[in-house]
Structures are given as structure tokens and as C-alpha cells.
Design a protein that fits this description.
7 helices; globular; six-stranded parallel beta sheet; about 230 residues; alpha/beta; Rossmann fold
């Protein structure tokens, strides 16, 4: 299965924001995580995300982190933020492609919910907390994007086949231009799930690009504006 890489159009940059989805320790930090992508994939994602984040920051374009955490009822210890029947039914079952039991460890304040340290949010960057796959559902992301005058989302994150895919669907449904950096994504379910999600996005939702093309366009923009990078 292959996905066609498309050229990033520099004319999209003025209305663009970088949206990094669930770059958390649960998925990417093999010293603490549980729902982990494969080690080499985690290293690739972090390395590429660091570079594209630096390029967005240098260009003055917004950087937005989407993080997932769930709150507990202190009386019972039960999670109150996600009662989807399927999600609840999957607890303590083997995660496809991962070979581990699914556990709800992403509790508010838990270390696994933190963004991995190389990507730790900085002053002036934005963080949106979500409780579902969608970064728009019951969050202020749409308000933030509207007030920032964003029309294009350059997306990376984990997992490609659930939270990233849902982010692309939801952005598409709200008429945002969807641009997914395929080398800043992976799935804890394995490469087949990652590629399947890329095929869906390529066919129906947006542009599949390499992060290097985005970085090059950002550098060219800065050079044209300031004469240096």
C-alpha cells in the first residue's frame, strides 16, 4: 500500500497553524508510556515534529498542541469524561497490533499525559485539552482558530488511525484546509493501520505531505520577508 506525497503549496502559509495531536508520553516516551508507537517511529515523529515546530515558531505562525486527559470521580475512581460503550468495552482487552491490555492511565495530571520533553509547549504556544478523538468536540479549538484567522491546519500526531484521522475529518467538515505530514504520524496499532488512515485522508480529506516540504516553504517565507533565516 502506498500513499502519494503531494507538494506543499507555500500560498497556504499565511493562514496556517501547526496542530500537534497527542504528542504525549503515553504514546512516545518508552521510559513511561503504555499505549506506545514503535520505538523508531516515536523517534522519527519527535525529531520531525521538533524541526517543523521550530520552523513555525521562526515564521511567527501559531503552534497548537492538543492533549488528551480524563478526569476521575474522586468518590469512585471512575473516569467521567468518556463513557462511549465501545471505549468502555475495550478496557482491559488486548489493543490490536500492540499486544498490551488497554488501560485508562491518561488521568488528569498524570505524567503520561504530558507532551514529550523535546516538544514541551513554550510561552506563546497554545494548548487545547480534549476528552474524545476529536480536538473540536467540547473544546475551544474552533474559537481559537477563528480568532487567529486560521484557514489551514498542518497536522501531525498520534495515533494516525484515530485521533489524527478524526482531527482531519473534523477540520474538513468545518472547511479548514487539511494538510497532514505523513512523517510526523504513527499508530500504536502498527504501520498497517497508519497507512490505512493515510489512504483515507489522501482520498477524501486533504493533502499528504512531507514535513521537509513544509519546513522549506516556511524558511523561504522568512527569507523573503526578512532577508535571512
Amino acid at each position: 500500500m502506498c500513499v502519494t506525497r503531494q507538494k506543499f503549496d507555500a500560498s497556504w502559509l499565511p493562514g496556517s497553524a501547526l496542530l500537534l495531536v497527542d504528542m504525549n508520553r503515553s504514546h512516545l516516551d518508552h521510559s513511561i508510556g503504555h499505549m506506545l508507537v514503535e520505538q523508531s517511529a516515536a523517534e522519527r515523529i519527535i525529531d520531525n515534529a521538533v524541526k517543523v515546530r521550530e520552523a513555525f515558531a521562526a515564521s511567527g505562525r501559531p503552534v497548537i498542541f492538543v492533549r488528551t486527559h480524563h478526569r476521575q470521580d474522586p468518590r469512585t475512581g471512575e473516569i467521567v469524561d468518556n463513557k462511549s460503550p465501545f471505549w468502555m468495552a475495550q478496557q482491559e482487552k488486548i489493543v490490536p497490533g500492540l499486544g498490551k491490555l488497554r488501560k485508562s492511565l491518561a488521568i488528569e495530571g498524570a505524567p503520561v499525559t504530558e507532551v514529550v520533553s523535546p516538544l514541551a509547549p513554550r510561552p506563546g504556544e497554545f494548548t487545547v485539552f480534549k476528552h474524545r478523538y476529536s480536538p473540536f468536540d467540547n473544546t475551544d479549538l474552533e474559537l481559537l482558530l477563528r480568532n487567529l484567522r486560521i484557514d489551514t491546519l498542518v497536522i501531525g500526531g498520534v495515533n494516525t488511525n484515530n485521533c489524527v484521522l478524526c482531527s482531519c475529518f473534523e477540520a474538513f467538515n468545518r472547511d479548514y484546509r487539511v494538510v497532514l505530514m505523513q512523517d510526523v504520524c504513527a499508530s500504536m496499532n502498527g504501520p498497517e493501520y497508519h497507512l490505512a488512515a493515510l489512504k483515507v485522508i489522501e482520498a477524501a480529506l486533504g493533502w499528504i505531505v512531507d514535513s521537509g516540504d513544509v519546513i522549506a516553504a516556511l524558511k523561504d517565507q522568512v527569507a523573503a520577508t526578512h532577508g535571512v533565516f
